[in-house]
Amino acid sequence: MITSSKCRPRKGAGLFPGHDTPYQITSTAFATEPVGVLRALFGVTNSMIGRLFRVATDFEHIVFDSGGVRIGAFRCHPDHPSFQDSGPARNYCFVFPRTAVRIEHEHEPPFVANANVVTFYNSGQTYCRSSISPEGDHCDWFGLDSQLVRDVVRTVDSSVDDQPERPFLRTHGWADSSTYLFQRKLFARVSAQPATDTLWVEENVIELLDRVVRNAYQVAPLMPPAIGSRHKTAAYDIETILSRRNGEDPTLTGIAREIGLSAYHVCRLFHRVTGMKLHQYRLRLRLRAALAEVQDSTRPLTDIALDAGFYSHSHFTAAFGKEFGLTPSALRASRFPGITRTIF
């Protein structure tokens, strides 16, 4: 198995929005419901809480907060002292990675978080990360009130009320292409237009959660239980290799040599575990990285295409259109006024 530094989440240590120094959590309530504790102890109002959560740490920025729904950006370099452990999750949230990292929830096996997946966190969840992409962890997250989360999850899992404090029972799931595009457009609009209608944002975030939950709970599990732990580990290692080489063309022989299997078994095993062929998985990563460049920059599309590993503008346009249902130029033309790049 591809190894990394030991990942040990610290229980009760974290960074609270607006403070760039650690605090110690002395109460379960404060770990899981910091907003409620602030109201109870200090009598702060919703507007004060909103201002508080909009203050950025040096690696996290809140772009929207209505009290019941929050949207934020997380950008943390591997050299940052809080990269491995940035503290327990402060929200019930689902996250769309933009770079690749290894995530390990407490008492759960590690998994590769990249642009092909959406990850889930319960409030107070302890976890840790280790780097795959040299940029570190770049992701956009959507947080909701616990009752909203339970209401959505209940539509696909009636047992959610058995553990109301842990409505997300899965750590991650596949992010289909239409949902990935939907969240990128939503995040870009909210980032560029802070005064966007609150009700519109809240409804769209709930719609987004409904999509990712239905996909994660109703589609076949990422790791079918019939597959042994050795094969799961091998698939995890293959995902790591494919995720860390965005600028390269990995070969089947090279992947097989690195994980110690034959090329034939690499192909068969990966497809059995993920439901995708190696080149399909890799193509999705390239297209989602390119989508961010198309949307957030003014770089020529040909340059983006070549950097993403496509041999021509037309090759890139055809693959992009097949994946997302529109061309790169159409996506760029549809950007909201004033959008040239997202935050960070």
Structure description:
This protein has 344 residues and is of the alpha+beta class. The chain folds into 2 domains: 13-218, Regulatory protein AraC (Jelly Rolls, Sandwich); 229-333, Arc Repressor Mutant, subunit A (Orthogonal Bundle). Helices cover 43% and strands 15% of the residues. The protein is built from 13 helices and 11 strands. The chain has helices spanning 28-32, 34-42, 46-54, 146-154, 177-192, 198-218, 229-244, 252-259, 263-274, 278-296, 301-307, 313-324, 328-333, and strands at 13-14, 23-24, 60-65, 69-76, 92-97, 101-105, 111-113, 117-121, 127-131, 137-144, 172-174. A 6-stranded antiparallel beta sheet has the order 3-4-10-5-8-11. α4 packs across α6, α5 packs antiparallel against α6 (198-218) and α11 (301-307) crosses α12 (313-324). The chain starts with 12 loop residues before the first strand and ends in an 11-residue tail after the last helix. 37% of the residues are buried. The model is unreliable at 10-35, 46-56 and 337-344 (pLDDT under 50).
Describe the protein's topology.
Layout (H helix, E strand, L loop, with lengths): L12 E2 L8 E2 L3 H5 L1 H9 L3 H9 L5 E6 L3 E8 L15 E6 L3 E5 L5 E3 L3 E5 L5 E5 L5 E8 L1 H9 L17 E3 L2 H16 L5 H21 L10 H16 L7 H8 L3 H12 L3 H19 L4 H7 L5 H12 L3 H6 L11
Antiparallel strand pairs: 1-2, 3-4, 4-10, 5-8, 5-10, 6-7, 6-9, 8-11
Write out key terms for the chains shown.
3-stranded antiparallel sheet, alpha+beta, single chain, Arc Repressor Mutant, subunit A, 344 residues, Jelly Rolls, 2 domains, 6-stranded antiparallel sheet
